[in-house]
Amino acid sequence: MTEQLESGGHRYLEQVARGILCDLIDTWHAAGEPERAAECAKLAVAQGVWQHAAQRPRDLIAGLSAKPLHDPVGFWFTALIEERFPEIRAEILAAVGSVEACLFGEGRWREDECAGLLVTRAVLAQIPEITTFNPGTIAISRFRPGTRVVPQCGATNAILRVYLPISGIEGAWMRVAQEVVRWEEGRCVVLDDSFEREVKHEGTEDFVALVLELVHPDLDPAHRARLLNHRLTPEERIAALMRERGLEAVSYHDGEVTLHPGEEMRQLVFQYMRAAGVSGVEVDGDRVRWWQATTESA
């Protein structure tokens, strides 16, 4: 029993260490310091936190094959998706317009988002790996010209991602570890979400892709079941978000969201604002605007 407790405690400390190092490495990348980020990753590998400097999940499951890109041919459903690509492409471009959409999450289809995507949904519904047994999402992602997603790693090595480029591939590329992906419309790309990836779009049109998540094929059935059991319903996600943010009520009407903080959050805000001597504050990116009792400053 003592050995089990010590083993569990060690795994917990490793998880904490990975979380701290992930935050530090992400901070260096966000600050435009890739060399320092790389130094941190190499040090973490030397200390046994991760095995690969480019694969840095917070939740590291032992025994799963680790490679940045997987051969799409190894997944039976990629042939089905590519065969139906002309219909899928036409539907997505007609129905989604200039926005992004999450079609599937928490184990269920999002009916409003799927309106007008009957063929796409019917095709994907034939693939249990990305529906019934998917703890993640199915989404339509859009990258505007000039977009850059700084290097980052997914939270776990238990998830793979499938990208199906829909349109606007000219000038768009993605780096996964040391491998650069050049998109082809209608051709699937399968990657390990736990490896560092960077996305950049240097083209002139929006780059649109259908993104599917699925469980790593090496994951044992027991762990797969735990992932599926932890899927939250939309109601559970809202409640969890409110508890995390200290909110007691949330309402939505005519496109406007109203938040009501709980007593603890109200007291905290009151104390901070009284200490700062302000009556209001507004944050817009890097810009902060403060309101005094009778004056406004920026």
From TrEMBL:
- Please give the InterPro entries that the UniProt record associates with this protein: Asp/Arg/Pro-Hydrxlase, ASPH, IPNS-like_sf
Name one molecular function that GO assigns to this entry: peptidyl-aspartic acid 3-dioxygenase activity
Q: Pfam families this protein is in?
A: Asp_Arg_Hydrox (PF05118)
Q: Return the Gene3D superfamilies for the record.
A: B-lactam Antibiotic, Isopenicillin N Synthase, Chain
According to the entry, every stretch annotated as the Aspartyl/asparaginy/proline hydroxylase domain falls at 102-217
Q: What is this protein called?
A: Aspartyl/asparaginy/proline hydroxylase domain-containing protein
Look up and give the organism this protein is from: Rhizocola hellebori
